[in-house]
Design goal:
By secondary structure, the protein is α/β, with parallel strands linked by helices. The protein is built from nine helices and seven strands; from the N terminus they run βαβαβαβαβααβαααβ. It has a single domain, classed as 3-Layer(aba) Sandwich (Rossmann fold), CATH 3.40.50. Strands 3-2-1-4-5-6-7 form a seven-stranded parallel beta sheet, sandwiched between helices. Helix 1 links the parallel strand 1 and strand 2. The chain is globular. The N and C termini lie far apart (about 35 Å).
Length: about 250
């Protein structure tokens, strides 16, 4: 199979953590990168400047992936600025304070599912419209950032977040089979216990350090380790890989 040149990549939630690490590596490998962000414009723009200083090509685009109109505008902006997307990383995700299921209200559930599930569906929809050979596209690849929480459950902490990632897993399997004959591969990574700011969002910034010694590998992971797995799934090295998952949870 002939190697394709890197094309246009959208990374949602790319102003920090796994998303930012993925955007950096992708730019180094020749992708034109859209750094999507929701609120942190300064961090997203700093990442774009960093990529440009290194000789890469990037733009920062604000969009709340839970908003259908924002997602439509995001992809249209990318179309006009750097060309139709050929690769998508559905990385944007949220969690809230650690809480038992008995204390979770419907408003929290709606927020979690809107970003983590609906956002992934909407972005995938717009990507398929541009990538699918059925629509005149040249094919492409989608990588969903799920979580080991989808199979571990996150009891006593984030069962709602874990459930949302279970839905992302199902999206990965179903969409991969739906578009496999249209030149699109759909895969996912399942990170956990990674040193990112998300743990502070859950109320325990030191969570990875607390858990790390109980993991088979005896340490937490780093965003760059997840980003490398994402980039492999996007690459031609994974050309016969679709509907599959890479676990990045230190052996848990």
């Amino acid at each position: 199979m002939a190697n394709r040149k890197p094309g246009v990549l959208i990374v949602t939630g790319a102003s920090r953590g796994i998303g930012a690490a993925t955007a950096r590596i992708a730019a180094e490998r020749g992708y034109a990168v859209c750094v999507n962000y929701h609120r942190n414009q300064s961090a997203a723009q700093s990442l774009v400047f960093e990529i440009e200083r290194g000789g890469g090509r990037a733009i920062a685009v604000a969009a709340d992936v839970s908003s259908e109109s924002d997602v439509i505008n995001l992809f249209a902006h990318v179309d006009n600025a750097i060309g139709p997307v050929t690769a998508l990383v559905n990385n944007a995700g949220i969690l809230e304070k650690q809480m038992r299921v008995e204390d979770i209200d419907a408003a929290r559930l709606s927020r979690i599912l809107a970003t983590n599930v609906i956002g992934s569906f909407l972005c995938s929809r717009e990507a398929v419209k541009r990538m699918s050979t059925r629509h005149g596209g040249q094919g492409g690849a989608i990588v969903n950032v799920s979580s080991a929480a989808s199979r571990l459950g996150s009891a006593g902490e984030y069962v709602d977040y874990a459930a949302s990632k279970g839905a992302v897993d199902t999206l990965t399997i179903g969409l991969s089979r739906e578009v496999a004959g249209e030149g699109i591969r759909v895969n996912a990574v399942r990170p956990a216990f990674i040193y990112t700011d998300m743990h502070a969002d859950g109320g325990e910034p030191g969570r990875v350090d607390r858990i790390s010694k109980s993991l088979p590998m005896q340490r937490g992971g780093h965003p760059i380790e997840v980003a490398h797995a994402i980039m492999w799934l996007l690459s031609d090295e994974a050309s016969y890989t679709t509907g599959t998952f890479i676990e990045l949870a230190g052996g848990k």
